[in-house]
Amino acid sequence: MKTKDLAYIALFAAITAVLGLVPAIQVGPVPITAQTLGVMLAGAILGARRGFLSQLLFLVLVAIGLPLLASGTGGLAVFAGPTAGYLFSWPIAAFVVGLLTERFWARYNVARGVLANVVGGIVVIYAIGVPVLAAVADLSPKAAIVSGALPFLIGDAIKAVLAAVIAVQVRRSYPVIERPQRAVAAR
C-alpha cells in the first residue's frame, strides 16, 4: 500500500470523526448523525478497499476509547449497545458504495452516485443495524424498523444525494479512484 493510500484512509477516518462534531439528534435508541455522510463519501471518493479501511480505522479509534461518535462516546461499550450493528456496518457500507462507484466509474454521474450511496450507505447499514437493534434492545422487527430506520430515511436520502454531488465534483477535479486499466490484448 502506498503512502498516498494511507493518507487518504486516515483523511476519511478523520472526516467521519469531524462529522461527529455535528450534534446528534436523539430519536429513540439510535441518534440521527452526520457521520453516515462520511461513510458514503469514503466509498464514493476512495473506492471499495480504501473506503472500507478508512471506516475500519475509524472504528478502531472508537474502540480504543476516543470519543469520536456524534454522541461524544467511544470505547468498547458502544459495540455492545443498540447502535452496534450500525457501527459494524460502516466499513461494509463504504466497501459497497466504493465497489458500485468503481463499477460505474466510466459513466459515473450524480444519478449513479445516488444509487451507489442508497444501496451501500442506506440499505446495507439498515440491513445490519436494524436486526442488531432488535436483538440488543429486545424489540420486535417492526418496532426496530419504526425506531431504527423510518426516522432516518429522509436525512439519509439527502446525505446520499449530497455525497453523490461531492463525489462527482471530486472525480472531475481530483479523481482519487484510478481509471480502470484496459486489458491488453495478447499478441
From TrEMBL:
Keywords: Cell membrane, Membrane, Transmembrane, Transmembrane helix, Transport. The keyword Metal-binding does not apply. Pfam families: BioY (PF02632). It is found in: Cell membrane. The keyword Lipid biosynthesis does not apply. The chain crosses the membrane at residues 7-26, 32-49, 56-78, 84-102, 114-137, 149-170. It is a multi-pass membrane protein. It comes from the Bacteria. Belongs to the BioY family. This is Biotin transporter. It comes from Blastococcus deserti.
